[in-house]
Amino acid sequence: MPRASETAASWVQIAQALIARELVETSGLPERRAARALGLAPSAVSQYLSGRRLGRELSGLIADPRVRSIARAAAERLVGSVGDPAEALPIVLEAARDLASEAKPTSRGGRRPSSSSIAESRALSRALHARIGTEQSAVAECMRLAQKSRDELTRAVFRQIAADSLRHAEIVASIQTYLDRGIHRPLASGVTRDDLERLIAKEREAETDPFGSSGIPLQGVMAVLWESMESDERKHTVLLDAMLRDGFPSPVGTSARARPRSGTDPLQ
User: 209 Cβ partners below 8 Å, 6+ apart?
Assistant: First the structure.
């Protein structure tokens, strides 16, 4: 199995590669159709199958019956939804999570986890899994409403919500992968506080409203879409501030801020 330090994004790529192989070799789909089922470019599937992409990572996985079972089950679900990326991503994410769980390192020595900690871990896992299911349902409903809409602006509203829900499902799946490996406080890597400060300055420069200065009022769905952009900008500020606060090692003499536990939803 791959190293336990593989990132969540790596597991998604590994899942895509293994499912692509099952779609072509077991289900008999042409490469182009398999690519469409996964929401990938045909060239990506071709590289997965030839071993030009992730060849080393896949070499130790293909013969593992547990891995084949996860990939085959995902491929069978995808066969019935070829051409619908909204259904493909949740299936791939679920397979990636299951593959990462298979690679979860086992404890060698030390104390065994207490029954209470095991129960907490299982309860959190169930909550995360339920959140993924909720986001997937929201995606399906938004795509249905987008297809029902008769103009591009209304479709854009529902497509944006669907895209957000897909991203939420991916975030939750990534969090669960880390928790399953026993990683409870991952920190930012490859970036510095200075990088974030510069980005915050650029975000503030982008927060201008040309319609407000022109005196032209936006109404109807146009106003809804513009507000969605403004809310995204506000969210970016919140995210970057939180990254500065929680995403880097705590200064000497301080402790990390604990997340609330009792009486709260760990996913909110």
Answer: 230
